[in-house]
Amino acid sequence: MISILLDCLGAYLIAKKTKNIPILIGFSIAAGLMSDVIGNLAIQFFTLETAGATMSRIAGGLFWHPAISIIAALFFRWKFSRQIISEIDNAEKLRRRELTLAAQREMEEKKRRVE
Q1: Which residues contact 32 (CB under 8 A, 6 or more apart)?
Q2: Residues in CB range of 28: below 8 A, 6 or more apart
Q3: CA 3/CA 38 separation, integer angstroms
Q4: pLDDT at residue 115, as a whole number
Q5: What is the pLDDT of residues 15-31, one digit of tens each?
Q6: DSSP per-residue codes, 24-36
Q7: Please, which residues have CB within 8 angstroms of residue 95's CB and are 6 or more apart in sequence?
Q8: Average pLDDT for residues 39-54, to the nearest whole number?
Q9: pTM: predicted TM-score of the whole model, two decimal places
Q10: Residue 1, SS3?
């Protein structure tokens, strides 16, 4: 459980700082492998488990932890890009509204000049 949380935390930090998808995947694989080893060694330290059981758990997680990390990183990158796109859309709507208000003021000024 600790190593899966480390996978997700690493994926979040990587997705927040990286915009290039191949680099994101490479870093996610590295983070998944590191969380697998570090998490399982922490479990061995706190539970005083045998080295053979820890090594078998690490070997079993060599596929799953990078996979979880990649999926989480792609998910977080998708969420961050959606957030950026919505901020850009909101800025564009605000700019259009300001232009519309400026055009309305301009039309009112022209009407006043005519009268």
Answers
A1: 7, 10, 65, 66, 67, 68, 69, 70
A2: 10, 11, 14, 66, 69, 70, 72, 73
A3: 7
A4: 67
A5: 988 888 999 999 999 98
A6: HHHHHHHHHHHHH
A7: none
A8: 82
A9: 0.69
A10: coil
How many helices (DSSP H) and strands (DSSP E) are in the chain? Answer: 3, 0
Would you say 66 and 32 are in contact if contact means Cβ atoms under 8 Å apart?
yes
Residues 7 and 31 sit within 8 Å (Cβ to Cβ): yes
Please, what is the Cα angle at 91 between 88 and 97, to 5 degrees? 140
DSSP state of 18: -
Which structure tokens are listed for 96?
A: 């259009």
Closest CA to 36 of 14, 72, 73, 62: 62
Q: Are 29 and 12 in contact (CB under 8 A)?
A: no
